[in-house]
Amino acid sequence: xxxxxxDVPLDQxxxxxAFDLDRILEIEPGFLDGDHDHEHDDHVTSFSLVTEQPLDxxxxxxxxxxxxxxxxxxxxxxxxILSFKDDDDRFVIQAVHMLLEGDHQRPWKAVQGxxxxxxxxx
Length: 122
Prior knowledge:
With about 120 residues, the chain is of the alpha+beta class. The chain contains 2 helices and 5 strands, in the order αβαββββ.
């Protein structure tokens, strides 16, 4: 299935049993056991920024571009949902390494408030 920005009818992606717990347990009976062999990388860090104040896009967007240029090879994932001054829409930025994309998404919902949230995993 091909899509652009995840624009697909939900009935084509939901209820397909793509992840069926019973099927997984048949293949791997110990899947739900707490004893899994895995390691954590102590070099992976994260930071986040949350503010209730609308941001100034002319100041914030160059900062994100600078961070991507300077630290892009270390960025595993970045997702920002931003509220800019004089803008009724959410602005969403996503980045993986040095690939950066941002665009207006949709108007803020009244129940959400307009807090800007930045999450980066590096």
